[in-house]
């Protein structure tokens, strides 16, 4: 992988390339450039499929960002480092993260935000540093996804978008902390700061929603209501702390009314984990007057505008957004990894399928058809 003068050179490897919106991914031999200044090249060991990967893959509003390599929940091993990188060495085990932490900008030094101004969410399919790609196939550039692109045996990420972890941490499980599980736990613990004895309602019991549920349970919430159209989520939800379950398709009254009856006027905390702005409105209507807090975590596929009657806010309710659970990747994620290693929360049972990388299209179908929690692909 290196030249005679010990500088990293181009790597050829397999990657799952999306050539168009919703088209089956094609395993191609791609070229991965060496890491540039402040970047690292990573041998991906495991990557899990997040709902946002599927949504963006199917999104026809950005057809100019194809061909593209998706994937952002990943664990791996540093293969080479670029100029100026002192935090990582070859052989280090890492998690990739879709938002970085430069530790120098206004937001990073504030201690109040994880919205890094230098390494924030990348939407244009390129690297943060030079607005170019590090992938190509047959001479054609391939766009990145969230500046991670883990559906490849090797990838290049900015060193600020990676977190070092211990070599004893199981890479096939901890990859879930790159996005979904961290997002749910952080929404419960850091963004909402759920209090003991409180009532909680969670819309959507996928990996993120179930992580909110266990976060609420660990904080001592007395009532945790799960809302999902999949009746199968009742059983798995109970394992993560759900005490009551509502299927909107089987409910004889508006969901928000049913929740108010279960909570004596509305939940203390409400979480939208679906990615539907209509559900955000329902979630806001489901929390109580005076102090009810609604946290939205989902990314909508369409209709990004949220509709709310001003009276919902005038009466004391709060609507708050949450990205990556409010965690700052480098400052906070190592502590979360430590909690996992100390068995302080459940992670392993959120992996519903372990599959080889070659089965990536099957894994995407499982997510599209709501037949999985997390599929972990082994590279």
Note down, in words, how this protein is organized:
This protein has helices spanning 51-58, 106-110, 171-174, 180-191, 207-218, 233-239, 255-262, 277-286, 310-314, 329-341, 360-368; strands at 11-17, 26-32, 39-48, 73-81, 93-96, 135-137, 140-142, 154-158, 162-165, 199-203, 223-227, 244-246, 269-272, 293-296, 318-321, 351-356, 374-378. With 379 residues, it is of the alpha/beta class. Strands 3, 4, 5, 8, 9, 16 and 17 form a seven-stranded mixed beta sheet that branches. A six-stranded parallel beta sheet has the order 12-11-10-13-14-15, sandwiched between helices. Helix 9 (310-314) links the parallel strand 14 (293-296) and strand 15 (318-321). Helix 4 (180-191) runs parallel beside helix 5 (207-218) and helix 7 (255-262) runs parallel beside helix 8. The longest helix is centred in the last third of the chain and has 13 residues, at 329-341.
SSE topology string: EEEHEEHEEEEHHEHEHEHEHEHEHEHE
Beta-strand content bin: 15-25%
Kindly report how far apart the N and C termini lie. 18 Å
User: What is the number of strand segments?
Assistant: 17
Number of helices, where a helix is a run of at least 4 consecutive DSSP H or I residues: 11
Low-confidence stretches: none
- The structure class reads alpha/beta
